[in-house]
Design a protein that fits this description.
Number of helices: 6
Oligomer: single chain
Number of domains: 1
Structural class: mainly alpha
Distance between the termini: 22 Å
Shape: globular
Order of helices and strands: HHHHHH
Helix content: over 70%
Strand content: under 5%
Radius of gyration: 14 Å
Amino acid sequence: MRDYRLYIDDILEAIQRTEEYTAGMDFEDFAENRLVVDAVVRNLEIIGESCRALPREIREKYPDIEWRKIVGLRNILIHQYFGVDLELVWDIVRNKLPELEMKIKEIKRDLDASSV
């Protein structure tokens, strides 16, 4: 079984990649660039899958993170790819991921401090 701390790293890496891929873009640039859209959607899938794989105890300890919504988005992206709402994806990238990144970094700090 994979160490759940690696899922935390996966989430952070996927957020950072998404930020890198969309840097300097507005919604129109994003929506017109299929390569970036595909990369962002893939990284959102990774975030959702990694959140799903975290132990229940971790998810319960940090209830301010919308774990179910994150996993739910992953399910939508996987199963309804061609019906994905790009405006919703863009809103998540710009407005939700920065907050999630801060919270996941907090979890990482807490885990690192408890393992010393």
